[in-house]
Each structure stands twice: as C-alpha cells, then as structure tokens.
Amino acid sequence: MTIEMNMLKAGDIRGLTIMEVLMAGVIFMTGFTTLSFLLSETLGRYSAGDQTTAANLARQYMEETLAAGDLAEFDRVIRYSGVAYRVVCRIESIGPLSIIEISVSREKTGEILIELYNEKYQP
User: What CATH architecture applies to the domain 48-121?
Assistant: First the structure.
C-alpha cells in the first residue's frame, strides 16, 4: 500500500510540473511574440540606408541653402539608388532672421525621414 501511494504522489507531481511548463511556455511565447512585433514595427519602418541617405541629402541641401546669397524655398524629388526622396525647403523670415527647415521624405510613402533646422541672420 505504501508503494502505491508513492506512485500516485509521483504521478501527481509530474502532472503538475508538465502543466507549469506548459503555462510558462504559453506566457513566454506571448511575450516573445509581442516583443518581436513591436521591434519589427519600430525598426522595420526605415532601413539604415534610407536614414543615412536622408541625412546626407538634408545636410547637402542645408549647406547649399546657407551658402546661397538669396534664400529660396524649393520642393524637389531626388532619385538615389533607385529610390525617390522628396527634399522640401521652407523658409520663415522674422525680421532679419531667417529660419530654414529642410525635410527629406520617401516619395512613395510620404513619411518624413529627417528634418533639419537652421537660422541665418541677414542684416
């Protein structure tokens, strides 16, 4: 009789351990799936190449705009490595101070990749 009770206890403990492992697996997979979804949404939005290209385009056009004697707004579509980028320059003048905003976005999606701001004083 003692042997049978020990076997029943061992069977019960093994069953609970399997249930605990299954529950832990379900909780882990739920957390892992949520984390991977959030990371893919955040990181998959723009590639590193897109961000680098956008930063270089914005810097280039900011330098050209600041070097120009007269400030002029523009909206251009630039093709680089088969991808179309829209470069927009907006200028707001407050007295002798001009605020320059350069934004670069993907032409296809319209999502802004980078915005640069600078000021130029023109007496």
Answer: 2-Layer Sandwich (3.30)
